Amino acid sequence: MPTARETLLDTALAALGEQHWSAVRMVDVAVRARVSRQTLYNEFGSKEGLARALVRREADRYLRGVEAVLAEPGSPARGLLAVAEWTVAAAAARPVLRALLTGAWDERLPAPRPVRAGARLAPVPEQRRADAGVPSPGELLGQARDRAAALITRGPSGPSGPDGPSREGDAGDAAAVVRSCELALRLALSFVVASTGREAEGDRVRLVRDALFPAAMHQVAGVRPPMPPGD
Predict the structure, then answer these.
(1) pTM score
(2) Which CATH number do you get for residue 197?
(3) Whole-angstrom distance, CA of residue 41 vs CA of residue 36
(4) Does residue 61 register a pLDDT over 80?
(5) pLDDT one-digit tens code per residue, 116-163
(6) How many domains in the chain?
(7) What domain range includes position 184?
């Protein structure tokens, strides 16, 4: 059963799908969530605190989503391809995530303004974490890259399992995995940033697949890409 905090965040996010953030009222969020206003303010402190919590949760969900996609059976190359495709699709469906990935906030969204200097720390641990700030687009990409690389390098059985040592390889192999993870994510983000809004989501996902799989994933798949003619 969701906690009051999760229910309030879900309600605020649903309200954001219907109107601009500036029009979302705390009292309405509390009423729709069937939670007292006092509970709402106890959890978030203010509307700005609620905005920071919404954005923090979206960043966390994105990182967990990257891990969940890579946990599916399949080769590392296909896992990274799936992460790239999922990133494009998720950003199209979730405006807050798109803003997190691109840094393009507008008046419709709950931009995470920093806590005022000298403000009292929130009593709720989750809110203190949200108030500490959210990652920039570059930081979020780096966190996703590092999580993906760690999962691919470690292998399905973990560092102590039978696949751990054999999958880790040398420093050169590990660096190649990190480069492949960053390449996959940066390519996905290029489609998120440059989307015209006219192409269908399926078309964007197919473009990512066509661009990424033939050449970019050879390193992580352990296959050398074909050399250009004359080399």
Answers:
(1) 0.82
(2) 1.10.357
(3) 9
(4) yes
(5) 888 889 999 999 999 999 899 999 999 999 999 999 988 654 443 334
(6) 1
(7) 55-103+135-221
